[in-house]
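Researcher: Let's try something more involved. This one mixes different molecule types, so please make sure each is placed in the same coordinate frame as the others.
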Amino acid sequence: MRQKDIRLDELKHLVSDRAIEGETVLLNMGPQHPSTHGVLRLLLELDGERVVNCVPDIGFLHTGIEKNMEAKAYEKALVMTDRMDYLNNIGNNLCYCLAVEKLVDLDVPERAQVIRVLLTELQRIASHLVFLATHALDTGAMSVFLYCFREREIILDIFEMCSGGRMMTAFFRPGGLWRDVPDGFEDAVRDFVRIFPQRIKQYEALLSKNPIYLDRTKGIGGISAEDALRWGLTGPNLRAAGVKFDLRKANPYSGYEKYDFEIPVGSTGDVYDRYQVRVQEFRQSLRIVQQALDNIPGGPVRSDNRKFVPPPRSELGTSMEALIHHFKLWTEGFPAPKGSVFVAVESPRGELGCYLEGDGGPKPYRVHFRTPSFATVQAIPVMARGYLVADLVAIISSLDAVLGDVDR
Amino acid sequence: MSHIEKAIVGLRSKLGEQVLSVSVFRAQTTVVLAREAIEEACGYLKSNHEFDLLADLTAVDYWPEEPRFAVIYQLYSLKHKVFMGLRVPIHSTTLELPTVETIFPNANWHEREVYDMFGINFSGHSDLRRILMPYDWEGHPLRKDYPLGYEEIQFSFNFDEIDRRKPYAKE
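Model: All components are placed in one shared frame. Result:
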């Protein structure tokens, strides 16, 4: 068995001299603390109730996804991405599919693009709903939690309708979608689009001017735009600090340039701004969903490039070539050229990047995911220093880090 | 001249021979740099060409070829909306390169992850410990000579035999 003693000297640099002399208290928070949203461990250095420093400790949810993906064919490795950021499964699929499509230079039909955008935005709403639910819960508002999960359920039902899975959908595949959306899909989305604006108002009525909530969030955990960039924050956390940066606008993918939407920004980057930015994003995502819904073109949902995309079942009985392609694709997969690509998409948490390297064979030589939560958790100490432990709970929840995303 | 081309011209005049090559694949530019030059290159690109976000930092293992590793940086410019890749080949005999933590603080954890997963050291790093694996873990999992590992299936005829060599806490 592995046995290695760790000496105290190796860890001394993590705390201040005051902790060594016993002036400040070291306290362990997590990994099983409910407000750490998963399995995040923080080593807190406290002066009374003030946080002097905090040292995040991650890796409790490390599942070796990158290593596992190296052992699977490109299409089979896709299911691993679902399990990375478990509140943004569709977005992870999209990022990986875009990377594969870029690496092998594969086209995606127009209909698939639009449905991808639609589902990704629904996923963004679902993810922000979980943020709002848990954030409100952590700041003492229990009922918001229940309302948010009620609406999230509608979105998950739509996913289930398309893919059979509520969360682990694996619905996007290199070259398009797994299959077309079922009958009744558009009606279900339309129903959601109809009721949701009213629900956003309900959440805002519960929180936005609630004095208890304002006391807990205004002026807490602020970060300047410059610091946020230095620490690699992206997405709503960066926008809350006043930087108008959204990859959907800056480097559009999947046809995002065709949609009309705004980028909500905050000013101080405190907990309240981060909440406001996300609530505004509900409305913007809904706008995109509405536009996509009104303009779903007809046609196929998957590329007909048979070197990468398996033929439909119906062709197998009549076409020898289809049978060969089917056999080749499901036994060994498709080869990708030697070379590497980096693709970044805007996930609900920020910039989700995929570094994909091919070596000419049917399996990825190296896959790496640059996950937004990784940067977010790293920056917790910057935001938490000087605040109370109770504020720390609000700060962590406002950052919306998903630990599956951090550890991969 | 595009922003990236300008940056490459600037890098070449600043670093000279230390810019080993420039490649473009699928419209993405990657600059291959010598090991010693990476810190200076990042500082130069950040202050002179507005590459203000370190979007990604990772590594690849090419075992058994040499140079065995490559450390890969992705810089992003918010103003010009472009990504730029930097690549630093590392020989298995040296396994060390300078940290860019001083320029991009968020490199701290990325470099720890590369150290954890590949065993590449970053000189000048403020806190080079394992980050994802347990602190007493042996080996570097993302190296190509590190086995993926799997759970051996135990049948009734070989249950005890496999159980004996299974690594878990026993009475």
